[in-house]
Amino acid sequence: MRARVWYESYGEAFLVERGARSGRSATARIIRIGKREFCVLGPQKAPYARYQVKVTVKRPLKWRSSEAPVELINKEFTEIIPFEFRRTRDKARQLATKRAWDALHPAVAVGGRILSKSCREVSSSQPDAVRVRLRVEVLEDIGRVQEFKRP
């Protein structure tokens, strides 16, 4: 059984996007004995102006219920690079349409045939954002095989 089915999705893109991405990274390996720390490998302090640090601590020596005052410390310094990306309103609309289609596409049945597709810009609460509504009409098979059981 075939039927016309409508799907609707929204997509949004900003004219200006700001954020930070990770760049290079460096790892320091440190041994802590009691209260003293010894850097065995890597930088002693962060080699970057802007960075995130991830610290993992392991206690390798355990004997029965007591622990030796030795710890192995890994410090991973990851450089953070701030960015600002500007796009035109047309490019933002194209990106918003692509995002709306990417959100809608998995819902469309395999083998369905697209009969019509409309995309229109809708108002957004944020002035630097472009928001679109995508509506797709698809002709698809809605029937399914089901075993008949007698009561």
Characterise this structure.
The protein has 151 residues and is mainly β. The chain has 2 domains: 2-15 and 87-141; 18-84, no CATH class. Helices cover 11% and strands 59% of the residues. The protein has 1 helix and 9 strands, in the order βββββββαββ. The strands form 3 sheets. A 4-stranded antiparallel beta sheet has the order 3-2-7-4, with no helix packed on it. A hairpin with a 6-residue loop joins β8 and β9 (129-141). The longest helix has 16 residues, at 89-104. It is elongated, with a radius of gyration of 28 Å. It starts with a strand and ends in a 10-residue tail after the last strand.
Please give the alpha-carbon distance between the first and last residues.
26 Å
Gross morphology is elongated
Percent of residues in helical segments? 10-25%
Our estimate of the beta-strand percent is over 45%
What sequence of helices (H) and strands (E) makes up the elements?
EEEEEEEHEE
Return the average pLDDT rounded to an integer.
Answer: 88
| Structural class label | mainly beta
Strand order of the largest sheet: 3-2-7-4
Q: What about the largest sheet?
A: 4 strands, antiparallel
Task: Please count the beta strands (DSSP E, at least 2 residues each).
Answer: 9
Total domain modules: 2
Question: Which stretches are poorly predicted, pLDDT < 50 over at least 5 residues?
Answer: none
Query: DSSP helix count?
Result: 1
Q: Using only CA atoms, what is the Rg?
A: 28 Å
